[in-house]
Amino acid sequence: MIHSTNRIFLFDEFIAEERRKYLVVVIYDIVDNRRRAAFAKYLKGFGVRVQKSAFECILPDAKYQKLLKGIPKLIDKEDQVRVYKLTSNADIRAWGTVELLEEEEVVIL
Fold first, then answer.
1. Which of 11, 32, 52, 81 has its CA 20 to 30 A from that of 108?
2. Which residues carry a binding-site annotation for Mg(2+)?
3. Which residues are listed for Mg(2+) binding in this entry (predicted)?
4. Do 22 and 62 form a contact (C-beta atoms < 8 A)?
5. pLDDT greater than 60 at residue 106
6. Average pLDDT over residues 70-86
């Protein structure tokens, strides 16, 4: 059994809001197979699947807002979706074969 622990990022109050990134967890229970497949495909554009009905994403606020805006278009009243936007110090502990989501930072000089 693989156990990993990782601090994704540290919240820095001195970083401008538009440059901050957040750990976002999306979990869902969608009744219809076709809607569920379309929803998972949509979420793949934002993050990685960590379980059958769970995605982790690291997003700036603008992309987070885009994620939220698209969700109601893909679900029905009988479906359930929960989105967690984690701020401050995110500490993830994982067991199993799914890799922890790593934030790649690119610096151009």
1. 11
2. 29
3. 29
4. no
5. no
6. 94
